[in-house]
Write a structure and sequence with these properties.
elongated, single chain, 7 helices, four-stranded antiparallel β-sheet, 7 strands
């Protein structure tokens, strides 16, 4: 596992200086690491443009106020920490959802097409993920609900109010009906 860097501080180019070379090496490894160039004095426009072309997020010229540099560094460190926390939480949620076998949990896009599918949904509804992802969720409703436009109504209410709850008959892959409590939260479907 490679180390994750919040920021690269690189001395700006002066004759014979390898700052741009260092930035190119960083870019070969990662396009995500922000780079701040630090200059010791007058810098021509060509160097500034090259620095930004290499992915610089800032170009600071001396005299530098330490408090400004520290604030920028703190902000990037906070961003990387927030990103790491978000990735950990997303992975924990993914493990929870995909490991749940007692409830069908799946996500819909705004038009009602299935974008995720857990093992509970597979067990309860009978579809494997590769069979159902990309299909419209209305296929789980019996003909009378389809005739009334119930799936579209459910999506409309969920979009407008942020959630929709209902109980009713649904249909498995094999055509057998089952009673379900349905809770739809904006873009996510829990059936």
């Amino acid at each position: 596992q490679s180390a994750e860097f919040a920021l690269a501080l690189i001395g700006a180019p002066v004759p014979g200086f390898a700052g741009f070379h260092t930035a190119r090496l960083i870019r070969e490894q990662s396009h995500r690491i922000p780079i701040i160039f630090l200059s010791g004095g007058d810098v021509d426009r060509e160097h500034v443009e090259e620095a930004y072309a290499l992915g610089a997020v800032d170009f600071l010229v001396r005299p530098l106020l330490p408090s400004i540099l520290q604030a920028k560094v703190r902000s990037f460190v906070r961003l990387i920490q927030d990103n790491q926390r978000t990735r950990r939480e997303a992975e924990q949620l993914r493990l929870l959802v995909h490991g749940t076998a007692d409830y069908a949990i799946f996500m819909l896009d705004p038009q009602g097409y299935i974008v995720t599918w857990n093992t509970g949904a597979e067990r309860i509804k009978g579809y494997k993920s590769e069979e159902i992802v990309g299909q419209h969720f209305s296929r789980f409703y019996p003909p009378d609900a389809l005739e009334r436009g119930w799936p579209q109504h459910e999506l409309m209410v969920a979009r407008a109010e942020g959630r929709f709850e209902d109980e009713g008959w649904r249909v498995r892959k094999d055509g057998s009906p089952f009673w379900a409590k349905n809770s739809t939260a904006s873009r996510c479907g829990f059936f």
